[in-house]
Specification:
mainly beta, 195 residues
Length: 195
């Protein structure tokens, strides 16, 4: 094999090896639950109902030097929704809305993370509600990230009827678009102390 052919072979193989190389710099992070939340606002004729999910968790790996190596998966306990009105919450848990008896979890799993500007990311992923999965883009703003810890937040909207949450009322019509607001404080796990 000539020097030229060896060089060309190397030039072709190297990118493939790099593409197959695992993201070794993506580090697992844990959530600071006291400083993290997932909220929603559903508008209707009579009220803008503000709610939150009380139980959820996330698996996060983060590489602040190469955001595309980062991943996030969120699991929400749909039964933990809370709008501070028991009657409304029970209705939201019923088959008219989330049908939590059949679909107790809401899932989000990223497929890509893209830096769009300094401190701004687009997290593309699959959101599953009531067994229906749709691909969405979740914007994220880095409030700060330093020494393995940071805070990220974002706001976006989904159409509830895309996920089969289709109940409506002639007395109190509900808007199809629901606003989602999330805020997460995360950090690298602390090393276990020696006993």
């Amino acid at each position: 094999m000539t020097k030229t052919s060896r060089f060309l072979a190397g030039a072709l193989v190297l990118p493939m090896l790099m593409a197959a190389r695992p993201f070794v710099d993506a580090t697992p992070h844990v959530i600071d639950k006291a400083h993290s939340q997932i909220n929603f606002v559903a508008d209707s004729r009579l009220i803008s109902a503000h709610g939150f999910f009380g139980k959820w968790d996330a698996d996060i790996t983060l590489d602040a030097t190469n955001w595309s190596a980062s991943t996030i998966a969120i699991t929400i306990d749909a039964t933990s929704l809370n709008t501070r009105v028991d009657m409304r919450d029970n209705h939201l848990r019923s088959p008219d809305f989330f049908d939590v008896a059949k679909f107790p979890t809401i899932l989000f799993k990223s497929v890509s993370v893209t830096k769009v500007a300094d401190g701004k990311l687009d997290i593309t992923g699959d959101l599953t509600i009531r067994g229906v999965t749709k691909r969405i883009v979740v914007p994220a703003t880095a409030v700060f990230y330093e020494k393995g810890a940071g805070r990220f937040r974002g706001t976006f909207a989904i159409n509830r009827k895309d996920y089969g949450v289709a109940f409506d009322s002639s007395v109190n019509p509900i808007e199809n678009e629901v606003q989602i607001q999330w805020d997460m404080a995360i950090s690298e796990p602390k090393p276990a102390t020696a006993k």
